[in-house]
Design brief:
The complex is a heterodimer. By secondary structure, chain A is α+β, with helices and mostly antiparallel strands. Chain A folds into 2 domains: 68 residues, Orthogonal Bundle (Arc Repressor Mutant, subunit A); 80 residues, 3-Layer(aba) Sandwich (Glutaredoxin), CATH 3.40.30. Chain A is 49% helix and 11% strand. A 4-stranded mixed beta sheet of chain A has the order 2-1-3-4, with helices on one face. The two termini of chain A are 24 Å apart. In chain B, the strands form 9 sheets. Chain B has a 7-stranded mixed beta sheet, with helices on both faces. The longest helix of chain B has 19 residues. The chains are: A alpha+beta, B alpha/beta.
């Protein structure tokens, strides 16, 4: 398992190096570059920080600072599907908290974590703007409204099979 | 728009203390306080805390906000810096000083919102990061978030003394904080023309040696191989009697003095007067012979001056900086900072010529790794390309220089293709380097012991000078030649005439007029013949020609090549006097040891590598019965019935000012007002060392064509490795002081030998293995450290570990012109113990 994850990291790093090379010495490019790496690799491997820094002419600590500042940039591999459970006021009132608890139980992970099979990453979100359908769960780009325990079960069975 | 990003326009009214502004400010400080722990009573920052100061200035008493301090603990093992992030107010002063002053970039903000904090890469402890422990961030931190870790005193001191750092040739200003006659803290000084508010680990934490329990506090006399403590009266009486006896029995030239590149200008001045007037010999030299003579003797004929041709500020303003044979990030950190700032912030281009990878490598635009010892060929080839491609500054060369034709002739043999075979650097890289260097009108060359300590050191220096002269890069707004000095007062000791052939100010001893001037002032006659240089003194001592030796603040047993022969030579003397802070390896051989006071215990001046004269001020009384060196010289002269009529360093400086044109206009009053550039004094630059815009003392500079002569024997089967020596950041000199600075010692406790990964694999050596380096003359052991910074077939041995002195491996081989022993490179074989 350890060997496998190490091998994965090495593949990712090689991919990063390819992407980074286009941006040599262009300090302005840090954020677009980080986004590009994330789009292509799925996340920004921490080992790539020194590589990015060297190519752009920045300090590794600076690159890390920017990456850790933005919510949208990830330093850990993410699941193939991202599940966002809404914790907005309307959803809360309609039992969003219980929905989150159930989702956690189903996936066996906490907020911000990814299932070991790399299928799901669980996140919460403050409000997605469709309070009329509360409580809401968003899977990738699809909104699932009026959630209840049964629908939670269906959701993950459907996606899992 | 936020006020801090609003551009200032004319006619704009700015209120800084209106009730609204004050109210906002108060709220902001209250918010900062709300996330700050209530640990002021036990915080080491005490009443130096600027947050506390600000809160009381704004009249903030008890807080009406709910307090949510962020408690985070960082476990660290280094002895220098302690981080308590709970007290961090996120002002970013530490981050900016690390990125913009020291340009190390070890820390930056990490994460956001409540969890935001300054952190290293991967949030590791400082010792696992790029941090060099320069202590600049600690000095900058307004609160107790960053403090000195292992300290002797927690509170706030009443006395702060502005003085000059006693380690390397940068001459940084430092503030010493004193509590009950003890130096308890060192911070970057207020007068920061050299160091710009930064220091290095030696400057910030190296002062520990002052209060080392090893300090000598009473004079010692050797009786039956054991030292006995005696009074000053007894010790000086013995020294005077013995010196007088040797002088009358064997003549004055059987006596010699080794002066100190660590002592003040005033002390060196007194010491050379002592040698010349009291002992009546010119056998006086100083420790800078070991690294600086090639510069003095090489640059003299080329440009007519002996130190750097421009000041550090101008180095930072250069467009192109060539660093050759130097690792300023460890040997002269303030210069390293300036170079890194020039590259990172001002966009200068760095050409790095070094076989080793150093901390500067990451900043280099062009990095050349020539075969070791082939610098002269490379520099000549660069000059040839510059001439061939018509990149010379024609006006400068025509109007200001001599000997261009001779140079062209000699350079003919140095085509890049030919030199490629010698240096191993592709001819296209040589051409690219020459073009980059010549393209700028503000190009600087920084060099160090990687040039001067080779057998062809003087040639290397002259080849550097030729390159600078061809392109007219001598002075002005940026550019110039910057020879690094290893020690705090290496340049000053030479300026003051602690040399066998010069009176103070490089006024030749052979010149009748000069001699008359000094004879009239000192009311005595001066010896005419040239004296002996440092290593020659030791060599002659071995043959019995030198009978008595007075060593002041030097440690030849460790700093000279072949410590065994040096030890034998010193042991064979009739009489050896050593004056030092500690019982150094040399002092152990002495008949009499005189305890000297450290830099913190005396007044005086140091001259740094630029030629800047900075004040050294007394912070505490001399420890025990130790005395400042100047006072010892005066007392000894009295005892020898040849008194020297001074009563304070100030009086000595007044005389220096009068008799040494280089130091005209440097009175303590002026220095106290401002540390002066010699060039800033008076209007007449011709009388000063500094040259701006090519104003040469002699009117012209002269090209000194030099040939590349391979001095290094090809590595033989028996000794297949090239061993390089050099400085590391945490230690200094022969380690007499730095190994007794307990925090430095704790951080870097034992000698190591760096060896490349592939070489180590071949020899089956692992990281941390005990290895032996064996040269044709000696061997020593160290711990192996595997690195990726060395070319194959090369190992690196740091100086400054008294238990394994790198110099021991070298044969005594003197450079013909400068009489500097070759101490940079030798062939060794490596064995696992």
């Amino acid at each position: 398992m350890a060997d496998k994850s190490k091998a994965v990291a090495e593949v990712d790093l090689a991919q990063v190096k390819q992407i980074v090379d286009e941006y040599s010495q262009q300090r302005w490019a840090l954020i677009p570059l980080a986004q590009k790496i994330q789009n292509e690799v799925g996340y920004i491997p921490p080992q790539s920080v020194p590589v990015i820094a060297k190519t752009l002419g920045l300090f590794p600590s600076q690159v890390q600072g920017v990456i850790s500042f933005y919510e949208q940039l990830y330093t850990k591999p993410r699941g193939r599907h991202v599940v966002r459970v809404c914790r907005g006021t309307a959803c809360h009132v309609r039992g969003g908290k219980t929905i989150l608890k159930l989702v956690k139980q189903h996936l066996g992970v906490e907020e911000g974590e990814t299932t070991p099979d790399m299928e799901y990453t669980l996140e919460t979100v403050a409000c997605i703007g469709v309070c009329a359908l509360a409580p809401n769960v968003v899977v990738d780009d699809r909104v699932h409204g009026r959630m209840n325990p049964k629908k939670v079960e269906q959701l993950f069975r459907k996606n899992g099979d | 728009m936020a006020s801090c990003v609003t551009p200032i326009a004319s006619g704009m009214a700015i209120n800084t203390h209106s009730p609204r502004v004050t109210e906002h400010r108060k709220n902001i400080v209250k918010l900062v306080l709300a996330s700050h722990p209530d640990s002021c009573m036990v915080c080491d920052k005490g009443n130096r805390c600027q947050l506390r100061q600000l809160a009381s200035d704004l009249d903030i008493g008890l807080l009406d906000f709910q307090k949510i301090p962020q408690m985070t603990v960082i476990e660290e093992v280094n002895p220098f810096i302690e981080r308590d992030i709970s007290k961090c107010i996120l002002c970013a002063k530490c981050i900016r000083s690390c990125q913009e002053l020291v340009v190390e970039g070890a820390i930056d903000y990490f994460q956001r919102g409540f969890s935001a904090k300054p952190a290293t890469l991967s949030d590791l402890p400082l010792e696992a990061s790029e941090c060099t422990f320069c202590g600049t961030c600690v000095a900058m931190c307004p609160t107790g978030a960053l403090t000195e870790k292992e300290k002797t005193y927690r509170g706030t001191t009443n006395t702060t003394v502005e003085t000059t750092c006693p380690f390397c040739g940068c001459g940084c200003s430092i503030s010493l904080e004193v509590k009950d006659e003890q130096v308890v803290r060192a911070t970057p000084g207020a007068d920061d023309a050299v160091n710009n508010g930064a220091l290095c680990v030696r400057g910030s934490y190296g002062y520990d040696f002052i209060h080392s329990p090893d300090r000598l506090t009473r004079p010692l006399i050797k009786v039956n191989d054991d030292f006995e403590e005696v009074s000053w009266e007894q010790a000086l009486e013995l020294v005077a009697t013995e010196f007088k006896r040797i002088k009358s029995e064997h003549g004055p030239n059987s006596l010699a003095v080794l002066g100190s590149s660590k002592c003040t200008n005033e002390e060196n001045y007194l010491l050379q007067r002592f040698a010349r007037c009291v002992l009546e010999t010119n056998n006086i030299d100083n420790g800078s012979r070991l690294y600086n003579s090639a510069t003095r003797i090489g640059l003299g004929p080329s440009t007519g001056f002996l130190g750097s041709t421009n000041h550090l500020g101008a180095l930072e303003k250069s467009d192109v900086i060539m660093v050759i044979g130097a690792d300023p990030t460890s040997s002269a950190p303030a210069v390293g900072y300036a170079i890194k700032r020039a590259v990172k912030i001002k966009g200068a281009k760095l050409i790095l010529i070094d076989p080793r990878q150093t901390k500067l490598s990451a900043f280099a635009h062009l990095r050349l790794c020539p075969k070791i010892g082939t610098d002269v060929a490379l520099l000549n080839s660069l000059a040839k390309v510059i001439i061939d491609e018509s990149l010379i500054d024609e006006e400068f060369v025509t109007r200001k220089t001599d000997g261009f034709e001779d140079l062209t002739k000699v350079l003919e043999a140095y085509s890049p293709e030919h030199v490629e075979a010698i240096t191993g650097i592709p001819s296209e890289e040589i051409r690219a380097t020459a073009r980059l260097y010549a393209a700028s009108s503000h190009a600087a060359i920084v060099y160090g012991t990687g040039i001067t300590q080779h057998m062809n050191g003087t040639d290397g220096v002259q080849a550097v000078a030729n390159l600078a002269l061809l392109t007219g890069n001598i002075g002005g707004r940026g550019g110039g030649i910057y020879p690094l000095q290893r020690e705090n007062n290496g340049l000053g000791a030479c300026d003051m005439g602690a040399l066998p052939d010069f009176l103070p100010g490089y006024q030749s001893i052979a010149d009748d007029e000069t001699r008359t001037k000094f004879q009239q002032n000192w009311e005595t006659s001066l010896p005419v013949n040239h004296g002996l240089t440092a290593v020659e003194i030791v060599e002659l001592a071995k043959e019995g020609g030198i009978r008595g030796l007075y060593v002041v603040g030097e440690n030849p047993v460790l700093s000279f090549p072949q410590s065994r022969i040096v030890t034998e030579a010193l042991a064979s003397l009739d009489f050896l006097v050593v004056q030092d802070l500690f019982l150094s390896e040399t002092a152990k051989l002495a008949n009499v040891v005189l305890p000297a006071a450290s830099f913190a215990e005396k007044e005086g001046t140091f001259t740094n590598f630029e030629g800047r004269v900075s004040r050294v001020r007394k912070a505490i009384d001399p420890l025990g019965e130790s005395l400042p060196d100047w006072e010892i010289f005066l007392r000894l002269a009295d005892k020898m019935e040849c008194p020297m009529p001074y009563s304070s360093p100030q009086q000595v400086m007044d005389e220096i000012e009068r008799l040494v044109p280089l130091y005209e206009g440097i009175s303590y009053a002026d220095l106290d007002a401002k540390s002066l550039h010699q060039a800033e004094m008076g209007g007449n630059h011709l009388e000063t060392r500094r040259i701006f815009g090519g104003q040469f003392l002699t009117g012209f500079a002269r090209f000194s064509p030099v040939e590349y002569v391979p001095h290094i024997e090809e590595a033989k089967d028996d000794y297949p490795f090239a061993l390089l020596t050099g400085t590391i950041l945490q230690h200094f000199g022969t380690g007499t002081r730095s190994s007794r600075a307990w925090r430095l010692k704790k951080f870097s406790p034992q000698p190591f030998l760096e060896i490349g990964r592939s070489d180590a694999e071949k020899l089956g050596i692992g990281h941390g293995d005990e290895v032996k380096a064996i040269s044709p003359v000696a061997e020593l052991s160290a711990t192996a450290k595997i690195t990726d910074t060395l070319p194959e077939g090369t190992v690196f041995l740091p100086l400054s570990f008294p238990e394994s002195p790198a110099t021991r491996l070298f044969n005594i081989e003197l450079q013909p012109k400068s009489k500097t022993p070759s101490l940079k490179l030798c062939n060794v074989r490596i064995e696992r113990v």
